[in-house]
UniProtKB/TrEMBL annotation:
This is DUF8151 domain-containing protein. The chain crosses the membrane at residues 12-34, 46-67. Residues 3-78 form the DUF8151 domain. Keywords: Membrane, Transmembrane, Transmembrane helix. It comes from Halorubrum ejinorense. The keyword Transmembrane applies.
């Protein structure tokens, strides 16, 4: 069986978390735009739902995955641990 270096595993995990954070943040931005256009078009219920879901997706992308997952992994790799 082939041994995979720990640094390679850590880099793959960092890449996956970073892509996930970017995708969640992008979905959040799209939902926010949709929500604001729905509210301005008169559909308050759909607009409010989209704005809340957009805020949740932005929170997951920026804080949950970006700040709490990707940033510590990046610091660990940069520090040589």
């Amino acid at each position: 069986m082939v041994e995979v270096p720990a640094v390679a595993v850590e880099l793959v995990e960092l890449l996956a978390v970073t892509v996930g954070a970017g995708a969640a943040a992008a979905i959040g931005v799209v939902l926010e735009q949709f929500g604001l256009s729905a509210v301005s078009g008169g559909d308050l219920v759909l607009g409010a739902w989209a704005v809340v879901m957009g805020l949740l997706a932005l929170y997951v992308g920026v804080v949950g995955l970006g700040y709490e997952q990707a940033l510590p992994r990046l610091r660990r790799l940069a520090g040589g641990e």
